[in-house]
Amino acid sequence: MAFPAFSGENRRSKALIFSMCCIFAGVFPHFLDESIALIPAIVVAVLLGGYGLRIVLKGTEGNFEQFKFSELNLQEDLSLPSIDVLVSARDEENVISSLVRRLSSIEYPEELLNIVIINDGSKDNTGPLLKELITFFPKLNVVNRLRNSGGGKSGALNYALRNLSSEWIFILDADAQFKEDILLRVIPYAVQRDWSAVQLRKAVINSNNNILTRCQAMEMAMDAVIQEGRLMAGGIVELRGNGQLLRRSVLDQCGGFNEETVTDDLDLSFRLLISGVSVGILWNPPVQEEAVETFQALWHQRKRWTEGGLQRFFDYWNFLISKRLSLRKRLDLLSFFLLQYALPVVSFVDLLISLLFHSFPLYWPLSFIAFSVSGVAYFRGCIKDVEGPDIPLPRLFNLSIAILYLSHWFIVIPWITVRMVFLPKKLVWLKTIHSGN
Length: 437
Prior knowledge:
The chain is α/β, with parallel strands linked by helices. Helices cover 50% and strands 11% of the residues.
């Protein structure tokens, strides 16, 4: 059965409905009697906070070693599949040379490994550098695409996939760093687990540059802890773009990458979910990448992540609430949709009403619980054994700054929601600049 095509229509009307619901939720308690005005927030805080805390602590109920590797994963008699390693590169002159050297050092049977870099209409020195690198690494395959071809990263990946036929696809960003044996470790584990898609934990390589990069390093660890907990609780795992391993047959089953979205990974996560595909996450080995180093770069990155995150809920909502998904997965989706997207908008409305009527915000119990659960997730992620770059220790100062850092979502998400309501649909894929430092 072919996966239905989605054009992203009616996103403005869906964004309007979402914003109206959030406005009502933010305003409603202010018209209740003072004695019961906090009850809605407390009830929701108990329900969502309880579920979130259960997810964060879920690993303590089971054996977390199941998410680590042992020598058994490297059995010599395991029949290894063919793999296409795929990188979409646009204006990546700062990192492209080091990337090619790392790709060429991957330990995997030569006849089963195909390395492809898509030069997606680069205007800088990426193209000339790739031409030069091919002379030193003749097994490197470079695919050139015109800059105005459309579809963003999704379009670039689909363009290359037309001429590829390996059993698995390993997608990396241009700034990715990894160990040479990464495929020899991840592929056997995915096969043994019967996973058709795997997301590796993302580790930040420049966490020591400033407070902003330190917070992002802790944020990536927190995200991985939450994803592990959701997996163990029967919820869903979401892809994160860099370091995602996909079985080619299930990608084709899902219709490839959606070119009508600004976040190919988040959109594909829902396509895989709807198709009933098993998706896993691995803590070790990680894929390493650069964190953005300025607030302006963070703002642009998080706007894209927010818009893509909301787009997928608006595009697939009818499937997400259908019986195609188990009740557990539907509850998991609802809980994290409310915590990730609805809470910031509701809290923003609540704050505006409080300022207007000179009263106290009424959703502080829910916000307090959400930040507290995040703090627990930070702590658990930062004390785990890691390969790759060290994660900042969860000392009081680091935890406090990292929790405060999360408040940027309470600005970005309301802003993007308003933009999606009032501005016409315009797909602009803004890449993250990689410095190569």
